[in-house]
Design brief:
The complex is a heterodimer. In chain A, α7 runs antiparallel to α8 and α10 packs antiparallel against α11. Chain A is built from eleven helices and no strands. In chain A, 80% of the residues lie in helices and 0% in strands. Chain B is an alpha/beta fold. In chain B, the strands form two sheets. A six-stranded mixed β-sheet of chain B has the order 6-7-8-3-9-10, with helices on both faces. Chain B has a four-stranded antiparallel β-sheet with strand order 2-1-4-5, covered by helices on one side. Chain B starts with 9 loop residues before the first strand and ends in an 8-residue tail after the last helix. The chains are: A mainly alpha, B alpha/beta. The complex binds adenosine-5'-triphosphate and magnesium ion (MG).
């Protein structure tokens, strides 16, 4: 059983690496064949060389961006679960906050980036704030959906055993809404990183967003591509980490259950 | 403990239920009904859809407060979910994220039963008794419908309930699995020396299993007749038993012809 699964996964990984390699080769070939100037589209070999040469630069800036992203993600996760639970379980909270949250949810929150910089400055705080502000909603919405979709028979079972509301929450509602929390977390992580980078575009003196703005101002297209490559790599790592955690925690859930909206 | 002679094991006294809803106003689901059930009886409830069978069972389980009357179990009234009562649902309602054994031990956690290890041991024994030995560490999705329902019965038996309530527990199973489960249930009933109240739509099933069949009728829901069943030998093949045939056709007759002039 076990070796079968790992062999299958190994196959997946090899296949993914293969398709990336073919894409890079095609890209390299086309750029060279049509002699496209490097300031428009650099060949991947140039990008790779730039990455190696300036590895330290990317490492430092990526560090700032990642720190802000991870803080924003976890704060958004905790806040989203807490608020999602409160609105699902407490009528008063639902009636008080739902209109406000729905209004905020439909607004383009990222557009507040310049104001967030004005309010919270050039440092990491503004990045985290914008990240939390955008990443909160997918978690919040998915948690409230998840709690609304609880199997009522499971709750009745717990009631027939004389369970307290707290026991029903921790033994039924929380685990049952885990697939939804995960769907929300997936989107939240992407939103957090996007927001941090946008905030760095707007006002920062470090981080990947700052680096990319600088590079494009200097028409260093190869540099921009190198930065984007770094971010794509981070995105892949995030994705596969969450997948691995999901497989461990949610082996019991069918995939269709974890569908959730994030916008 | 109460002296068994003067008091019935389970006593339903003038119990009625009226639902109030926004859409339909009030629905009389059950008119005042009284009857007694003795210790170690197996009582089936049959009746048309909507006659208040589930309502009655939920009242016995303490999940629903009766509009009038009271339910007394071993001299103590039932006022809410009670350790003395176990409820088996139509669907198994196993929690998919818990292994089979952890589903069976759920009541031990919820009720904080002590000593814990003794109850966990009991959970393993019960799984063996319902034929799930070797599946303790499987997840519910790996079991068939019949196996899931067996696990749910083990879950209800794990705390020491004296009264087992079952609301159409085998209705979702195919005929063969259902026969198997009936034999199993009779065995459990004898082994555990408990009292069972069993709701079903299947008249031969009710007669085959029971010591007493309660026939209910609808609009308004009420107890129509209580029929004692004395078959001697119980088992799946009762077609040759004249008493069995007589009772089954008597109940069919009751259900086919609604009483005249019963409408209030
Ligand atoms: N929660 C409720 N609110 C309002 N009316 C209800 C409620 N539950 C049941 N009823 C009504 O009470 C009556 C009895 O319902 P009940 O579920 O007890 O019937 P039943 O005998 O179990 O039927 P079935 O055989 O279909 O399961 C029905 O008319 C039903 O519409
Ligand atoms: Mg019913």
């Amino acid at each position: 059983m076990n070796s079968l699964i790992t062999r299958e996964r190994l196959g997946d990984v090899l296949f993914a690496l293969g398709s990336i390699a073919v894409t890079l080769l095609l890209w390299e070939g086309i750029v060279r064949y049509f002699q496209i100037p490097a300031f428009l589209v650099p060949p991947p070999s140039d990008v790779a060389r730039a990455l190696m040469r300036n590895a330290d630069l990317y490492r430092v800036h990526l560090g700032y961006t990642l720190l802000a992203t991870v803080i924003a993600f976890f704060v958004a996760l905790v806040l989203g679960i807490a608020m999602g639970t409160l609105t699902a379980e407490v009528r008063l909270v639902e009636r008080t906050f739902s209109p406000i949250l729905i209004a905020l949810q439909s607004a383009p929150r990222i557009a507040l980036a310049p104001m967030v910089i004005v309010w919270f400055g050039f440092g990491i705080t503004s990045k985290v704030v914008l990240g939390v502000f955008t990443a909160f909603f997918p978690v919040f919405l998915n948690v409230s959906h998840g709690l609304a979709a609880i199997d009522r028979e499971q709750v009745r079972l717990m009631q027939s055993l004389g369970a307290s509301p707290l026991q029903i929450f921790f033994k039924i509602k929380l685990p049952a809404s885990l697939p939804f929390i995960f769907a929300g977390a997936n989107i939240a992580l992407i939103f957090a990183m996007l927001s941090v980078i946008v905030a760095e575009f707007v006002g920062s003196n470090r981080g990947m967003g700052y680096l990319i703005v600088n590079q494009s101002n200097q028409l260093d297209t190869t540099g921009v591509f190198a930065s984007v490559t770094v971010l794509a790599g981070v995105g892949l790592v995030f994705h596969y980490t969450l997948q691995a955690v999901r497989r461990r925690l949610l082996f019991w859930a069918t995939d269709s259950e974890s569908l959730g909206s994030g916008l | 403990m109460a002296d068994g002679d003067s008091e019935a094991f389970l006593s339903i006294r003038e119990v009625s239920k009226t639902y109030r809803t926004l859409s339909k106003g009030t629905t009389v689901a059950l008119t005042p009904s009284s009857f007694d059930i003795g210790a170690h009886e197996f009582v089936s409830i049959v009746g048309p859809s909507g006659c208040g069978k589930s309502t009655l069972l939920n009242i016995l389980a303490g999940l629903l407060a009766p509009t009038t009357g009271e339910v007394v179990l071993e001299s103590r009234p039932i006022t809410g979910p009670d350790d003395r009562v176990g409820l088996v649902f139509q669907r198994p309602v196993l929690l998919p994220w818990r292994k089979v054994i952890d589903n069976v031990t759920l009541p031990i956690e919820v009720k904080k039963l002590r000593p814990k290890q003794a109850y966990v041991d009991k959970a393993y024994q019960l799984l063996e008794m319902v034929g799930l030995k070797g599946f303790e560490n499987a997840y519910p999705s790996e079991l068939s419908g019949g196996m899931q329902q067996r696990a749910s019965i083990a879950r209800t038996l794990v705390y020491d309930s004296r009264l087992l309530l079952m609301d159409e527990p085998f209705a979702a199973l195919d005929a063969m699995t259902r026969d198997e489960m009936n034999v199993e249930l009779l065995r459990i009933w004898r082994a555990q020396k408990m009292t069972i109240v069993f709701v079903t739509h299947n008249i031969p099933e009710a007669v085959m299993l029971s010591t007493k069949v309660i026939v209910m009728s609808a609009r308004p829901g009420r107890v129509r007749e209580i029929i004692p069943v004395e078959l001697g030998e119980r088992g799946l093949d009762l077609t040759g038993n004249p008493e069995f045939g007589r009772i089954v056709s008597h109940i069919r007759g009751l259900l086919d012809q609604p009483e005249r002039g019963a409408q209030p």
